[in-house]
Every structure is written in structure tokens, then in C-alpha cells.
Write a structure and sequence with these properties.
By secondary structure, this protein is of the alpha+beta class. It has two helices and four strands, in the order E-E-E-H-E-H. The chain has one domain. The radius of gyration is 12 Å and the shape is globular.
Length: 74
Amino acid sequence: MRNYWYVSLNNKYPLPMKGQHKRVVMSIQMKAKYSVVEMTREATPVEVDQCKMVYCGFGYWKEDHIQENIRKYI
């Protein structure tokens, strides 16, 4: 399953919206200064601002463009 990948610069991640029962955040890899967030949908502008998230791409974890973009921000 292809997903949206983000780097959160303040270790926060989007929580499910009220009335939304679907799982939005698939996985989180938390480190001391950042988190890598895998989401099933594209983040809203409010979520991007609140969580200080940077878009890294759409696809599978092992794809080269995803890895390159994540390395830029960590």
C-alpha cells in the first residue's frame, strides 16, 4: 500500500478528527528531535502547521525519492 510520508520536526503527529473512524496515521518512527510519520491520506494544512510536518513523498518506504527526502530533513 502506497502512503504519504512526512517528517515531523516537533515530534507531534495528527490525531484522528472528530467523527473520523478511519486510521489516518499508519506508523510513527520517533527519534529525539524528529519523527517520521506514515499516513494513509495527505495531511491537511492545519495538521502540517500544528505538527510542523514536512512532506517527503508518496509511495513505499524503500523508494529512493522517499529516502532522499527524509534524509534532507533529519
